[in-house]
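Notes from hallway chat w/ T.B., transcribed later so I don't forget. T.B. wanted the structure written out for a chain they're using in a teaching module, and asked if we could keep both sequence and structure tokens in one place. Agreed to drop them here.
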Amino acid sequence: MTTEVTVADNPTVQVTGKQATGKHVTHGSTPSNGPRILALLNQKGGVGKTTTTVNLGAALVRRGKRVLLIDLDPQAHLTLHVGVDPDSVEHTVYDLLTRPELGAGEVVQTISEQMSLLPAEVNLAGVETELATLAAVGKAQRILADKVGLMLAGQADGGAVSSAAPDAQSLAPHSYDFVLIDCPPSLGLLTINALALANEVLVPMQAHFLALQGLSKLLETVSLVKRSVNPRLLVTGIIPCMFEGQTVLAGEVMADLKTFFDAARSMDVPWRNAVVLEPAVRRNIKLAECPSFGKTIFDYAPDSNGAKDYLALAEALLGMEEGKATSEGPALTTATIA
């Protein structure tokens, strides 16, 4: 089984804009003592992105961390998963992206003492059309990074900086340890906004051959965003989801992924230090059931394999060091998954 992964300079997704300048926190920047910001990304749907975002966040909470979840999927499944009705909230991420005067702090919903949410709604599906003019001049790709970055830096409402506003770096950091972003199953404007804010990328995926085929386009997008918008962006690793370890195919795909990442160790690419996180998240019916009750796996079935796997994943993530790769992007890299 051989898949060639080519990371080129011109993926079809449009990323336009200049690097962040000025003293305030924008474009993926947070203070050095700020939270780890992870975008959970895969352009293929149904691979476990939302399930992982919610339950990894809940596992981190159980390890004493404060977590902000950001739902960027117009389906609003993450929002529903944590028991929030998108129609019942005053503001959502859609409003945050389309209303310049609205700050991130005005959109945040409290889920528990240690978990908060920026909720989504179906209107997010039209945001690319509504922001097309701004996107054409490079001003729509960083809205989320600007507003959430300011909130994380400590500005009360996370709104736009005025000339009279204090330096955001001088404000007390917002008290989140982790920010987890549930990206939509596409590589469009919403995903670019997520990558402009994030420090790291996690890729939930199933151990299927076709999943390897989509990895090249995903890595192209990450590489381009790193060069043009967010130089801090790194790929932390792959999260195998719905894993069936008893199958030959699953073992082959896992081995192929590890070989691919090992081959990138000497390359100047954002995934040079990426790993396949283990243990994998096993297929578990309780993980499929808990969203219908608006609960995390720890509230719904705390003794299930799903709960055990996400706790182990949280431990693995906490044990990893953020920020190992270089800040310069590659030109053209060809690697082979063999």
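Follow-up for T.B.: The chain is about 35% helix and 15% strand. Might be a good example for the class.
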